[in-house]
Model the fold of this input.
Amino acid sequence: MIIKSVCNLDCIKCFDLLKYKFKGYLLNTSIKPISNGNFYSTSTEKSYKTGLTVYDSGVRKKVEFCTVLPKTVLWYCCGPTVYDSAHLGHACSFMHFDIIRRIMEHYFGLNVIMVMNITDIDDKIINKANELQQPCQRISHHYEKEFFEDMHKLNILPPSITARVTDNIPEILDFINGIMDNGLAYATSDGSIYFNLGKYSGYGKFSPKQESDSSQQSKLGSEDFALWKSSKSGEPFWESPWGKGRPGWHIECSTIACKYLGHSIDIHSGGIDLKFPHHENEEAQCCARFGIPKWVNYWMHTGHLFSKGAEKMSKSLKNTVSIRDFLNSYTANVLRIFCLLIPYRNGVELRKETLDKAFAMERTISQFLLDLESIIREGKKVNFDEQLLFKVLHETEEKIIVSFSDDFSTNKALSELFHLISTTNSMIKSSNEEYNTKSLYCLAAILNFTSSTLKNLGYDYIDKKNIAYEEVEDLITSTIQFRSEIREAALEINKNQPKELLEKKKTLLKACDNMRDNFLNCGIELKDNGKTTTWRYTERKINATTKT
Done:
């Protein structure tokens, strides 16, 4: 039964008309699920192999990854509670899952359907609204928009479907009704609904005991958790058969996931802090609602990001670094390399040394791609062992696939890629006349492989062949060539020349340096190598210090 809900919030009418300029991040509230009652089943007697092995938090070991549907992954990812700016801990978790999603799509040919919720009604949002004396909806809409802007800046793919809790109240009420009809939930005198753990035998997949809450004396059991909370004075509410109230935290994810993905899904993901009680309770709700022993086939959790020592980065501890503050010091590519270096299940401390390592690796990658592009574009003569280099390339391709298939071991894959880069650089720089290299197709193959691998992992590599302002490249090159000629002429002035000429040399070189800095501010990096200069597109001038 679908129950119509009535919200007492003052709507911000313009918000739903606002079209985010970031394609793909629009909330897909118009998408209709395939109906079987009010939810649909994806259960099948078959499962389909993918070639992947993943660590399933539910069984605490690596297992073969098989899907409910052929070549398709049904994935639910817990989204943000939008009451404040997203911090770097959130960024790392979402980026890890973005990398995993890209690996599934690009290397294993899987069609990933990712659903993510937006928690836009919650105690934290209510508290923030009271603190700022603004409507809850204004708070949630502001931080929701900011969250998606941050994800765009980090080059994190948008979910296939994004759903707000407040847009799914009828489905939540229906879901609660289903659990009650099965005798596993009950109403209290104040109009709240609780899950009855005393009657549910399947609890404890992640932890044998629920956190006790003795604040609600009307509960049958101290460990029972809320499905529906009766309204308090001054709080947002919706009408329900049990009175005015709002959803509990756990029920929203169960409802939204089942609405769009059915009651047998492949992956459910989130930070390790959500494993218990949130994910435990989600699993219990779905199994109770549909009378099934198992809802999620694979649970995936990312490790904590620690700010210092063993202190988890958390808003409650006031030790967070916002995504926007981080991007004032480093690029999104640096954060992505940082995440590639760390297995997604591992906790990691945010240390400047680690970030600087990622920064240095980003510079190595960029310079390597620039050097290969320059050699190929200018047809430079280099001599190296083509047979050996092709062998290294093919071995790298194979080892990277093996690394990805083993629970997405990006740290191993990145190590293999850098071995290829190091080997290629070594051969190029020690060009040996013993080898009479007749063409550059080997370097072109390595350039294609390296750039495509990075792109597939979400590294924002700017391909100069496809850049939107390709038509101005000749102008850029001519301008840089003019600077190079001025710089070369200045460098030829030796210290034995008259003082006036030496002063002129300083002036010219300073002007060349200023021009280099101005180019960098425009997203073009110049690299002086003796009397010659090369250039590449970059994101912006980078300050290699961090606020962490």
The radius of gyration is 28 Å.
